[in-house]
Amino acid sequence: MTPDELTGTWGTLAREALPSSREVRRRIVPEAPADVFAFVMMADGLPGVEIRAVAEGPLPETALPSSKGVRLESKVEHLSEGGVETVFTLRLEDATQASVFATLCTDVVTQLARCPDGRTALLEARSRIARWMSLLARVRPEGLSRERRLGLLGEMLVLERILAHVEPLPAVMAWQGWEEHNQDFRVGGLGIEVKTTGAKRHARISISNERQLDEAPWATLILACLELESEVPEGPTLPELIVRVRNLVATSGEARLELDLRLHEYGYVDAQAHLYADEHHHLLRFALLHVRDDFPRLTERNLPQGVGDIRYSIVSGDLGAYEVNESTFATWLTGGVA
Questions:
Q1: Pairing status of strand 185-187 against strand 84-92
Q2: Residues 333 and 190 sit within 8 Å (Cβ to Cβ)
Q3: In this structure, what is the dihedral angle of CA atoms 177, 163, 236, 191, given to the nearest 10 degrees?
């Protein structure tokens, strides 16, 4: 199931409802060891998902975070024939969050089909819901900062390059930038750190710690340097670039779902796409630099004793001797040795 398919189910339910209906629902994910229903409340036309399963005892108590725009309800009933039925209900309350809500619900219910029993399904559902609620609570109403927008643009442009050589799901799973690891992509023994700057002469790249350019954990470490010119009349916007990447992974529902989840973790939500719709970007330079030998950097091996929490910058234009071509990059992506 994809977010678009779930949205389509909600739309069908709303169209087929009788005038007197208070609620319309349909069971989905029949292979899951829990009963999963998509529903629409006819009073306001807003959709939701209900998950219910019976287990031998109640789940361990834990507090679930709340989130503006999405209502989460849970209830527990001790059955006369034995066992405890737990019900989770997710309902959209803010129509502007519809795309995020569809992705949230799809992510949660898709995981349930992989669970061996009802109790495991309930625990998995609660865990995924908690993650999403926490994520939605962190979304800033003003959207991403300029620095975060540039960072996401660069990482999506690199992901496009990777998708030219790697299947959709492993390519998306390679993206680690949303979690702020030392390197933004991990493809087997290849690490890729992405640095994106605005267009200016002698662009300086900021390095935030001694591990970002340390090739020790990797068979190969690449520094991808991108220079973007913004506020130009033509060129893709951030939402347009994300649509391009989504189209590249469209053949894999799992890859598309994972991409959306990671975008939301980064802080990008479709409901805020209008905030970035007038900001066009032109790619001036895309350089892939092989971090090796005398590449200018500070690592744990060459730091003076007692020095830590470092931050420094390098000039990318001075590093042409370390640049590799697309063919070499493709070879490393697919596990070969150039």
A1: unpaired
A2: yes
A3: 30
Tokens of 117: 């029993």
**What does the pLDDT read at residue 199?**
64
Q: What whole-number distance in Å separates Cα of residue 17 and Cα of residue 243?
A: 33
CB-hemisphere CA count at 13 Å for 188? 12
Give the start-to-end residue ranges of the domains of the chain.
3-138, 146-333
Cα gap 314→294, rounded to integer Å:
13
246 neighbors 171 (Cβ within 8 angstroms): no
According to DSSP, residue 213 is labeled T
Q: What is the pLDDT of residues 5-55, one digit of tens each?
A: 999 999 999 998 888 889 999 999 999 999 999 999 998 899 999 999 988
Give the up-direction half-sphere exposure of residue 264: CA atoms within 13 A in the CB hemisphere: 23
As given in the structure block, the two tokens for residue 219 are 């068979």
Tell me, what amino acid is at 16?
E
Phi, psi of 131 (to 5 degrees): -60, -45
Tokens 């995924």 belong to residue: 128
Identify the H or E element spanning 23.
strand 23-28
> pLDDT (tens digit, 9 = 90+) per residue, 212-262?
777 777 889 999 999 998 878 888 999 999 999 999 999 998 899 889 889
pTM score > 0.90 for this model? no
Question: Under a CB-based contact definition with an 8 Å cutoff, are residues 302 and 218 in contact?
Answer: no
Q: Tally the C-alpha atoms within 13 A of residue 183's C-alpha that lie toward its C-beta.
A: 23
Q: Which residue has the higher pLDDT, 96 or 247?
A: 247
In this prediction, residue 202 has a pLDDT band, given cuts at 50, 70 and 90, of low
